[in-house]
Amino acid sequence: MSHFDPVKFMTDDEALKAFNEDVLREFRANDGKVGGVFEHVDVGILTTVGAVSGRRRVTPLVCLRVDDRMLVIGSRGGAPDDPAWVRNVRANPLAELDIGTESYRVTVHEVVDAERDELFDQVVAVAPVFGDYQSKTSRVIPVFELRRL
């Protein structure tokens, strides 16, 4: 697998794309399991519709369970701008999630304001790296709940 370099991924779209393609290959070859930096977390594959292109977009994401809610975080390593998948789900919240060996449709609901802040604190408690990413940017890193249809 390509080297995980969140600092580089903040600005280098091609490096991020190559890394994500490696994660996708490993996910599909190993029944939804990914090693390396993702060995002890759940990785999901979120399939969205491009906000501008209308084309299918596939993105591997860390999926976190907090209070029986499946969450994904729009961090991109603390980059100044949201990752592309965030724009996609804001434009079209219907998506597909592959996690482990399961695949199902979801609605992607952005959690905002005080509820977001409370959930983000819980996310940081289980995955401190997201707090590090938030400290690197002035934007509020968005939190999304994936609701199974």
Q: Can you count the beta strands?
A: 6
Name the poorly predicted regions: none
CATH topological fold name? Pnp Oxidase, Chain A
Q: How would you name the CATH homologous superfamily?
A: Electron Transport, Fmn-binding Protein, Chain A
CA-atom Rg in angstroms: 14 Å
Oligomer: single chain
List keywords for this structure.
149 residues, alpha+beta, Pnp Oxidase, Chain A, six-stranded antiparallel β-barrel
Question: Could you characterize what this model shows?
Answer:
The protein has 149 residues and is of the alpha+beta class. It has a single domain (6-148), classed as Pnp Oxidase, Chain A (Roll), CATH 2.30.110.10. The protein contains 5 helices and 6 strands; from the N terminus they run H-H-E-E-E-H-E-E-H-H-E. It has helices at 6-9, 13-29, 84-91, 113-126, 129-135, and strands at residues 42-49, 56-66, 69-73, 94-99, 102-111, 143-148. A 6-stranded antiparallel barrel has the order 1-2-3-6-5-4. A hairpin with a 6-residue loop joins strand 1 (42-49) and strand 2. The longest helix has 17 residues, at 13-29. It starts with 5 loop residues before the first helix and ends with a strand. The mean pLDDT is 92.
